[in-house]
Amino acid sequence: MPLQKVRPGTVHRVRPDISVLSDSLEVPGIGHLPVNAFVLLASEPMVVDTGLGLPDRDFLATLGSVLEPADVRWIWLTHPDRDHTGGIFELLEAAPKARLVTTFIGAGIMSCERPFPLDRLYLLNPGERLDLGDRTLIGFRPPLFDNPATVGFFDERSGVCFSSDCFGGPMPTAELAQADDARAAPVEDLRAAQLLWATVDSPWIENVDPDKYRAGFQPFLDREPDLVLSTHLPPAAGITGSMIDTLASAAGTPAFVGPDQAALEQMLAGFEPGGGGR
């Protein structure tokens, strides 16, 4: 069955209390990168990351299809990269009772863009817990990350893992990137995408100690989450073990090397009149 045409702001309800705000971004030479945010309908509702800040995106409108922004009590920022913070300042204004969960480093990075009241911060480090009234979240450092402020979490009530960039993988089409199940991609294609993303987003993996690196997956092995929600992958249910096997094999893989200036000029020439572009 063909996948349906998607648009920015597609919403997938993956659990009665968890929704994925699905988006994607085309990256030349790599593919269509999923860019997800999430809504956790706890007693004290939480938004996890806030998507892209592109002019044609309206994060608050997308969020409003799941939850009134004014009802948000927590915003968990897995890390302050721009593909995670697109709607954050608008959401802070629309949700005056919400507090921003981040790290000391994360708060410092965010303050370089715009100051915000310190009394709305909630600093949380890996290993620490956050009580949302009907559940407890346990922060952890994912084994793969591209920002020192990265903190994902396990939801003790649902058993779901929110892994930030870890387990991400670019897809060949926007439809696959915004699918409601990572298993829509063929197994080998998904494996290749995740290995590629590991070298793009975490180029330091080329130099890691393999044993220490693999030990970073122990929290997943201990908790065995049936559903992993990554910012850069469609919802991944029932394949945690195979995804761990994939990424555990990535230690020592050479870092991704992107196009250079000559390649850029060749690409641009293709768009010029008479250059072969359309």
List unreliable stretches of 5+ residues.
none
Radius of gyration equals: 19 Å
Number of helices: 9
Structural class determined from secondary elements: alpha/beta
Mean pLDDT: 93
- Approximate shape: globular
Give the biggest beta sheet.
7 strands, mixed
Strand order of the largest sheet: 1-2-5-6-7-8-9
Number of strands: 15
SSE order, one letter for each helix or strand:
EEEEEEHEHEHEEEEEHHHHEEHH
CA distance, first residue to last residue: 32 Å
Give the fraction of residues assigned to helices: 25-40%
Report on the structure:
By secondary structure, the chain is of the alpha/beta class. The chain has nine helices and 15 strands. The protein has helices spanning 59-64, 88-94, 104-111, 174-177, 187-201, 210-215, 218-223, 240-248, 261-269, and strands at residues 10-15, 18-22, 24-27, 31-34, 37-40, 46-48, 74-76, 99-102, 121-123, 129-131, 136-140, 152-155, 161-164, 227-230, 236-237. The strands form three sheets. Strands 1-2-5-6-7-8-9 form a seven-stranded mixed sheet. Strands 10-11-12-13-14-15 form a six-stranded mixed sheet, with no helix packed on it. A hairpin with a 2-residue loop joins β1 and β2 (18-22). The longest helix has 15 residues, at 187-201. The mean pLDDT is 93.
Give the gist of this structure.
The chain has 278 residues and is α/β, with parallel strands linked by helices. The chain has 9 helices and 15 strands.
List keywords for this structure.
278 residues, seven-stranded mixed beta sheet, globular, alpha/beta, six-stranded mixed beta sheet
